[in-house]
């Protein structure tokens, strides 16, 4: 049963050939600079105020705009390829989780069958290491969905007993302690669905543009739609994208429009995020890409390294002068082929094939004004990010999908709005063996399209961090240790 209930050329610039030669399977060694596109001159006077609306509705409850009014800095970290049940399903079985009875997680008897009727039950892997993960293409996702029965996760991986077994795995507090500690202290969204019942790129397109322009595969958009970046720029709100890897996913994914109007207004290394948080200079909207070679949590990459990245972001925000007016969303692009028991609902979309949402993904909303140790079951998806920016900053709509999608106001605790941040909860220190991390890093990238775009010259050298993988990893680990979120061994 499925479930019960780097040399320089003539111009003096580093040539692409020399910068990238000899890098083998990876992209190696100098700069992801800043300045993709400067803000418009008309923004010298600062952003316009959003439309004034009542603070309370007809029933006396605070409006969404009122609840989000205290948020000036909105940070998003989107990781890779995990379903809700795979990462957070065990919250329902965890006696230490304060909202155990409220979260829609695992019961412990969930199964799927293969084509021959062999039953594979949900199980916890003995060690927190994995293979390359189950299949999760458009077709595989629809096969897993099985018209709402959610009983095709094993059958979608016919031909690979290893992937069939992996599809039915889950992790618990012992393997991802930081995620569970953050769940204890902040908001878990147990109805956050991926935007598309399919792979990474369409889902990331929806984050940026509330559409994938009909793409169902991991290919670039060549007729670029409007994005939340240009809407933020038009409204004179500051925004910046940061990456822990060689280049932003955005610059590989969006190739259609003349760069400038709709791309991230400034891009930077992850180190800049930590520095700006410390100085209290984070912009209104921050989007963080992990390193898709190591810290993105895509199997087989290290769970501990992904947690070290997350912990570093959380702690740098908590120690920032901006913490009192900040909100961090941690989510995943899509389900990665892993089982989830909740059939995703439909939504509004001009393209009928995209009205079906994808499977649930693990999502946390973190900040001093959010509900504490609670579950929020409002139906949310990646377009909710743009919807939240519209509610808080008044950015223009990206279309009917965005107009119909809920924002994050349900995650805010009305009793905490307008009050100073309370004490920060204790977070577990991640024990990280550098040799084990390196053993599962740098040999596989979850986003080969970024590597291909760099090699094809589709991403400018000024937007590429050409440090070696080892240098980037060493920098992240140093920050994790300095912020006291990890202990590095080996």
TrEMBL record:
Coiled coil: none
Keywords, sorted A to Z: Hydrolase
Single GO MF annotation: phosphatidylcholine phospholipase C activity
SUPFAM superfamilies the UniProt entry points to: Alkaline phosphatase-like
Gene Ontology biological process: phospholipid catabolic process
EC number: 3.1.4.3
Top EC class for this record: hydrolase
Alphabetical list of Pfam families matching this protein: Phosphoesterase
PANTHER family: NON-SPECIFIC PHOSPHOLIPASE C1, NON-SPECIFIC PHOSPHOLIPASE C4-RELATED
Family, as annotated: Belongs to the bacterial phospholipase C family.
Name of the protein: phospholipase C
Lineage, top ranks: Bacteria, Pseudomonadati, Myxococcota, Polyangia, Polyangiales
């Amino acid at each position: 049963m499925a479930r019960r209930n780097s040399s320089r050329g003539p111009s003096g610039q580093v040539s692409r050939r020399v910068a990238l030669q000899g890098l083998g399977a990876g992209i190696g060694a100098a700069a992801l600079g800043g300045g993709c596109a400067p803000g418009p001159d008309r923004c010298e006077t600062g952003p316009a105020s959003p439309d004034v609306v009542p603070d309370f509705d007809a029933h006396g409850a605070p409006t969404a705009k009122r609840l989000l009014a205290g948020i000036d800095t909105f940070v998003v970290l989107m990781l890779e390829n995990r379903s809700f049940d795979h990462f957070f399903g065990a919250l329902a079985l965890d006696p230490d989780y304060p909202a155990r009875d409220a979260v829609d997680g695992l019961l412990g008897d969930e199964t799927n069958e293969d084509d021959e009727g062999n039953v594979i039950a949900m199980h916890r892997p003995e060690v927190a290491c994995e293979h390359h993960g189950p299949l999760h293409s458009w077709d595989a996702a629809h096969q897993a969905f099985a018209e709402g029965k959610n009983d095709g996760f094993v059958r979608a991986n016919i031909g690979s007993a290893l992937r069939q077994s992996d599809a039915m795995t889950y992790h618990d507090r012992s393997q991802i302690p930081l995620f569970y500690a953050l769940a204890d202290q902040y908001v878990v969204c147990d109805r956050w669905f991926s935007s598309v019942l399919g792979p990474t790129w369409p889902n990331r397109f929806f984050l940026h543009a509330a559409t994938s322009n009909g793409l169902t595969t991991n290919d670039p958009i060549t007729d670029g739609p409007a994005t939340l970046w240009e809407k933020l720029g038009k409204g004179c709100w500051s925004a910046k994208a940061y990456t822990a890897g060689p280049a932003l996913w955005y610059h590989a994914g969006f190739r259609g429009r003349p760069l400038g109007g709709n791309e991230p207004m400034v891009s930077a290394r992850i180190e800049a995020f930590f520095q700006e948080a410390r100085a209290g200079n984070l912009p209104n909207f921050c989007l963080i890409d992990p390193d898709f070679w190591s810290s993105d949590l895509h199997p087989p990459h290290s769970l501990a390294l992904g947690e070290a990245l997350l912990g570093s972001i959380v702690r740098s925000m908590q120690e920032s002068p901006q913490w009192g007016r900040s909100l961090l969303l941690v989510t995943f692009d899509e389900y990665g082929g892993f089982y989830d028991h909740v059939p995703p609902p439909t939504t509004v979309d001009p393209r009928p094939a995209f009205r079906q949402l994808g499977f649930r993904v693990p999502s946390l909303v973190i900040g001093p004004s959010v509900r504490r140790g609670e579950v929020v079951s409002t139906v949310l998806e990646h377009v909710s990010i743009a919807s939240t920016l519209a509610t808080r900053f008044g950015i223009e709509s990206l279309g009917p999908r965005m107009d119909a999608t809920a924002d994050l106001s349900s995650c805010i605790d009305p009793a905490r709005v307008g009050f100073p941040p309370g004490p920060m909860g204790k977070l577990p220190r991640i024990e990280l063996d550098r040799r084990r991390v390196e053993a599962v890093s740098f040999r596989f990238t979850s986003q080969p399209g970024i590597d291909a775009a760099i090699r094809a010259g589709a991403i400018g050298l000024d937007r590429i961090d050409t440090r070696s993988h080892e240098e980037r990893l060493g920098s992240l680990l140093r920050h994790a240790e300095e912020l006291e979120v990890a202990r590095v061994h080996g």
